[in-house]
Amino acid sequence: MELTEDQLHRYSRHIILPEVGGKGQKKILNAKVFIVGAGGLGCPVGYYLAAAGVGTIGMIDNDTVELSNLQRQIAHSTKKIGVHKVDSAKETFESLNPDVKVIGIKDRISKDNIKDLIKDYDIVVDGSDNFPTRYLVNDACVMLKKPLVSGAILRFEGQVTTILPGEGHCYRCLFEEMPPPGLVPSCQEAGVLGAITGVVGALQATEVLKLILGKGDVLKNMLLIYDALKVNFRRVKVPKNPDCPVCSDNPTITELQDYDAGYCRI
Amino acid sequence: MEDVRIDKKINIKGLICPYTFVKSKIAIEDMEVGEVLEILLDYEEASRSIPKSMEDHGHKVLKVEKINDTDWIIQVRKEKE
Ligand SMILES: [Zn+2]
After folding, report:
1. What distance in angstroms lies between residue A159's CA and the mean position of ligand 1's atoms?
2. What residues contact residue A201 under an 8 Å CB cut-off, 6+ apart?
3. How far is CA A204 from CA A11, A77, A110, A208, B58, in A?
4. H-helix or E-strand spanning residue A172
5. Which residues does residue A236 pair with via DSSP β-bridges, in sequence order?
6. Which of the four, A114, A133, A214, A248, has the lowest number of CB atoms within 10 Å?
7. Within 10 Å of residue B69's Cβ, how many Cβ atoms?
8. Each residue of A103-137: pLDDT tens digit?
9. Within a 13 Å sphere around the CA of B12, how many CA atoms are in the beta-carbon half?
10. Each residue's pLDDT tens digit in chain B (81 positions)?
11. For B8-77, which CATH superfamily applies?
12. Adjacent-strand bridge partners of B61
């Protein structure tokens, strides 16, 4: 595959980077990334990956655009209220960059569909807004050995970590079990400053691009915590847990499970 | 200066930065280590910036020469992938 004249222009600021070049840009164009959620994190992640030229972007979300989403979910717009989020995001991303094909899935992710959904993708991004999905995505990625870039946001804080199954930690090495619903912030407590989703989503997109290019370090065995009020980024070491219930040599979780709701979606 | 064997020539007259370097970089990426690329250009700033960028990328600049009122040639040997 040769880059076209338009592509040389579109991606010129990538191509002139020593770490990217024409070869790296072709890797990006050939990459397939699956994003869980077309909301606060899925929007900026998908937006930057589309701009970067990631050739195939899969997205799953069952929701339609609501007015209250627009304070942070930047792929959508006022005239898209009531439209499925994956349709709205597909239109936004494909009009930004015709090199990108967005495959939108209007469904809830579950133990029954997740493996089929992610199996043909190179990298998975978790932009989900609830703990049950986060654990499900982690467990499925560990079982299928898919690199996973996980992000989370709440109020003025964000977290990002990159899970490379077989090499580093997983989400359960960090938090073995889901917190009980009572300990998770209730819906009234779960506000978020919209711009935080952009910070975390852009960090996730950057991790994905480095994985595609094979350049630089990623947040393997590490959790990055951003505190917007204190303007502080902190990296916390997360060792792989030799007794982890899912990624250790003798896992106790060998089948996916769906966890019941009772959690507030942030 | 001894004559070097040129393995590939590109003409990027009419282009300005950064496309002068984009085209040069794409050309050298497709070559083998040790091969020499000759670039013909007419954008003065690039006659300075391309050699610098090529060296930053680890390649060896063999020659930068103004050949007439408007044009330069640059010869670069690919030193690494
Ligand atoms: Zn683990």
Report:
1. 17
2. A40, A41, A42, A43, A44, A45, A47, A48, A127, A151
3. 20, 22, 22, 6, 30
4. helix A171-174
5. A223
6. A214
7. 6
8. 999 999 999 999 999 999 999 999 998 889 999 99
9. 28
10. 567 899 999 999 999 989 999 999 999 999 999 999 999 999 999 999 999 999 999 999 999 999 999 999 999 999 998
11. TusA-like domain (3.30.110.40)
12. B76
- Domains in chain B: boundaries: 8-77
Model pTM score = 0.93
CA distance A65 to A7: 32
Contact A16 B29 (CB under 8 A): no
Which regions of B1-81 does DSSP assign to beta strands (E)? 8-11, 36-41, 60-66, 72-77
Distance between CA atoms of residues A223 and A150, nearest Å: 10
ipTM of the complex: 0.88
Enter the DSSP assignment of A192. Answer: B
- Which amino acid would we find at residue A166? G
CA distance B52 to chain A (A): 13
Which residue of chain B comes nearest to A12, CA vs CA?
A: B22
CA B56 to chain centre: 13
Task: State how far the Cα of A115 lies from the Cα of A117, in Å rounded to an integer.
Answer: 5
Chain B residue numbers with beta carbons less than 8 Å from the beta carbon of A23 are 29
pLDDT tens by residue, A216-256: 999 999 999 999 999 999 999 999 999 999 999 999 999 99
